[in-house]
Amino acid sequence: MPPTSRPLRKLGFLTIGLFDEADPRRGHESTLEIIELGERLGFDSAWLRHRHLQYGISSPVAVLAAASQRTSRIELGTAVIPLGWENPLRLAEDLATVDLLSGGRLNPGVSVGPPMRYAEVKDALYPDTADAEDFSYERVRRLLDFVRGEPATEFSGTEGFEVFSDRVQPHSPGLGRRLWYGGGSLGSARWAGEHGMNFLVSSVVKAEETEGTPDFAEIQLSHVRAFRAAHPDGEAARVSQGLVVIPTDSASPEQRTKYEEYAAKRTPRTAAPQGPARLMFAPDIVGTSDEIAERLHAHAAFREVDEVAFALPFTFEHEDYVQILTDMATKLGPALGWRASA
User: Fold this and answer.
1) What are phi and psi of 246, to 5 degrees?
2) What is the pLDDT of residues 68-120, one digit of tens each?
3) Which of 79, 84, 195, 266 is in the most buried spot, having the most CB atoms within 10 Å?
4) Measured on CA atoms in the order 242, 120, 133, 279, is the torsion positive or negative?
5) How many structural domains is the chain composed of?
């Protein structure tokens, strides 16, 4: 098997945290148990997706606060918080609080753009300012400034019995270096690099300015290189890749069939760019760890990253995630040159 140019240094996983509307607590508990399992298996990071008005985790920062008290080592990330739903000042306070509670393990990933289905939700989300809200990169810049300790107000000092700060409190000094931008375009890659963020790439990219049949891996590689070219840290700038991989080493025959059928249903969308935004989706990778490792080593973008947060499929059962994570940590990770954390 050909070696990667960057040995895999950090192994993480990403979950959506689905739950049953009739028993939402059980779904949230399942997510926390999966994070605890990840730490026991030696994973370096666990990441939560963000879903609003759906049956997935709507408040990952709150769930990660709980996870921070049930773990001691594993890094805890969001992939990603859509900032169109957030007030950057308030979010900065929540992120700093959870980072301190976790002992400096929080890795917040964010993105910009109008909220999903904005026409239907805007009157509930921004009843007085819906048409004036700015969903551009400026929203990220505001969050960066607040998290990094820039002034939020011109006032500070004592007034009566109250003491006021001119910057977000609490302030967590290291958090500003652990902010990630989740992007799938050249513009987002360059912007994240220019502003000193880390960069999350996933199983979705935009096929921009391409002729013929675009190649997902080559497009993603161009984003990784554009990000690092714009980043002050250059080649040392952090990039994490989040493809969907499903190892089957210890899976039962029934699980293998389920996994293969899941991937097959999603494969047609990977054949060509989708919709006006020309979104391209990477195929899910199902197979033994050796088979998956061989395909990843052939992936142009994977060869230039040393961190991954493999995405768990949305609709599987708790026991499926236990099997997949166990195989990732004990089979796939070592096949990629990774060593479990102590």
Assistant:
1) -130, 95
2) 999 999 999 999 999 999 999 999 999 999 999 999 999 999 999 999 999 99
3) 79
4) positive
5) 1
